Amino acid sequence: MEKTGTHSGVLHSDEGFGVATLDLLGILGILIRTRDPKALAECTRRLDVGGKYDPATGDFDHHQKGGAGVRENGIPYASFGLVWRHYGTELCGSEAVATLIDERLVQGIDALDCGHELIREYAHQDVRVYSISDAISAFNPSWQENPKPEDFDRQFLAAVEVAKAILQREIIRAKGDQEATSVVKEAYQRMVGSTSPLGLKVLVLERFCPWQETLFDLDIEGVIQFVVFPSETGDWRIQVVPAAKGVFKARRDLPATWAGKRDEELAQLTDCKDAVFCHNARFIAGAKSKESILHMAELALRS
């Protein structure tokens, strides 16, 4: 019977997600939380303990002198990253999906576990981003609960269940993003070959999917201003294209006169009877029909 060992006591997202990965793969076996070298030596794998990184011997620690290596972007590997590096592709069924998960989830956890501050400046000095590492750490028993060792073990198992659920959903989401790439590329080719008055400035998706990553890869010159797509309710939406990846500022906002308007008021401004709304921040608007949303796109381009 396989055994996986990790350290006892205070739990962290690092080993929590590492254990979750092994559990989802079905190779976790019996989980042992201890710092006893003899008990750890009997384990098939050791996570975040042991002072050694060697997948061949089942060792995935990063506390040894010199650490366990860094990524090309400078983010060091913690135990979750080491486990993911070895097993991520197997769990995801795709190297591309595993890489996305590493970028979105694993690297942030590794960085914090290794003491790297990812956000150095805050707009509000008294407000901090609550990370997934914070959420997992919240499972630790609090001092006033007078916790015993078994309380930490029980809470660790609860935290691992949360980590497993997050991993499963992130894998599904990453696979969806990979599939969305082809959908956006097809829409882009339709736009390029179209004689529509919208030209190359409005990308029309026949079904919603994540579009930003692929759009930025395709639209190198920054021509596309808006993206049109159906919503989950059956209505249609027009959304602005950000000026760059990861920023809220748009290449072009929706018209200022539309801001915060709804229903009849917006219908009068757009000459679209089924216009529904325009967000106050002018980054998204909606109408009940595709015909109307395309008309709104034309108006927005002229504004």
Automatic annotation (TrEMBL):
Gene Ontology, cellular component aspect: cytoplasm
InterPro entries, per database record: MYG1_exonuclease
Which Pfam families does the UniProt entry name for this protein?
MYG1_exonuc
**Organism's domain of life?**
Bacteria
Signal peptide range equals none
Q: Describe the family membership recorded for this protein in Swiss-Prot or TrEMBL.
A: Belongs to the MYG1 family.
PANTHER family registered for this protein in UniProt: METAL DEPENDENT HYDROLASE - RELATED (PTHR11215), MYG1 EXONUCLEASE (PTHR11215:SF1)
Name used for this protein in its record: Metal-dependent hydrolase
Q: Which organism is it from?
A: Candidatus Staskawiczbacteria bacterium RIFCSPHIGHO2_02_FULL_42_22
Q: Which classification does the entry list for the species? A: Bacteria, Candidatus Staskawicziibacteriota
